[in-house]
Amino acid sequence: MLTKILAKNLATKSISNQCLVISVRHLIATPGVVKLAEVGKLETPKLDGKYETGQLFIHRVFGYRGVTLFPWIAKVFDRDVPLKKSNEEAIDSSRVGYNNDGKQIPGHIHVYYQTLIDSRDCPFVRAQTEAVTFLGNHGNTRFLYAIPGLDYVAHEDILPYTSTDRHPIHHELFEKFLEHEPNTDPPFVPKDTLQAWQEKNHPWLELSEVHKETTESIRVTAIPFYMGYRMSQNVATHWWRYCIRLENLGDYAVQLRERYWRILDYSGNIENVRGRGVVGQEPILSKLQPAFQYSSHVSLQTVTGGQMGTFKLEREDGYIFECKCPAFSLDLKQSPIPSGTDPSGSPNDSHNPGTPSNPDGPYSRYFSSP
Is 46 exposed, middle or buried (0-12, 13-18, 19+ CB in 10 A)? Predict the structure, then answer.
């Protein structure tokens, strides 16, 4: 069976003489056995500047192995940050959010990375590893497809390491996007296929805004993405996906019991959605496994709207409370592109594995929208 990775902020990794050792999964005959194997040497995380394309890393929270593809510059609206402008912080006041007192807050600039997740770790990560979804060229508007093993990682969640392995990350796109150059740092450099894929899929991949808020030591991060629209009987339906991360910063374990969403469109229509758990789960956030991340989708028949909500959580001592999800806008980040157009060239374009023009390709999987 596949052994399960046990991860909590490097708690299950043995670090000795700067060698990073993590638990890996492999086929074994005896259940319950965890084998440790050295994967490389830990490097000092960067406090300033960006990581280059091809940087190997361990995710600080989820513990998986990955590699950086390219950075995104996002505006982060943090409801917990005091409204005091720092001289050291780049402030962008073109878009604003609101803090817990209902006051406007500026968005500050922060770096995130598009990354690949090692497929060996995907089954054991407490985050959806097929969360980057697209609208396909299909008449049935309930179908989406995803490219497995893509993620968005904040700069502070990157724990860089080096490896002498020429194939340190198992992912179908690793060798299509990166090539080994032993004399460079990092020793993996981008191929032309990566730049072409990034440019042609920019509208669906772009991360531009991040919203954060903490309630009772539960930190919620929300990231919306515009996906495009479909036409049906001369009516356009616009689609967004949103990524939610819940992280327990406190001492008590909590379990997510219910979700509630309030969705508004530009015409003033309001939809209230309530249900058990999220994506069919009621995850427990504990000291050992403090975070859970998932994605879902929402559609509107207007070009803009907004979404806000709460999560009902139960603490291990029986205390029940509601945790706020920060309100986020549902906007078009670019000119609207209808589903069914071909934004990335020929469906058989080898430079665009798994792109929206090729939903039947080997790097995509189908999902039915909730």
Answer: middle
Structure tokens at 1: 């069976």
pTM of the model: 0.79
**Using CA atoms, how far apart are residues 119 and 174, in angstroms rounded to an integer?**
11
How far, in Å, CA of 39 to CA of 35, rounded?
13
Distance CA 359, CA 361 (A): 5
Residue whose structure tokens are 């309930």: 142
- Specify burial of residue 117 (Cβ count, 10 A radius: 0-12, 13-18, 19+): buried
- Quickly tell me which residue has 């150059």 as its tokens: 181
Residue 356: is the preceding peptide bond cis (ω within 30°)?
A: no
Question: 360: burial class by Cβ within 10 Å (0-12, 13-18, 19+)?
Answer: exposed
Q: How many CA atoms lie within 13 A of 324 on its CB side?
A: 15
- Lowest-pLDDT choice from 15-19, 124-128, 226-230, 273-277: 15-19
pLDDT computed for residue 336 by the predictor: 52
Distance CA(357)–CA(184), nearest Å, equals 34
Q: Which are the contacts of 30, defined by CB distance < 8 A and separation ≥ 6?
A: none
pLDDT above 70 (res 163): yes
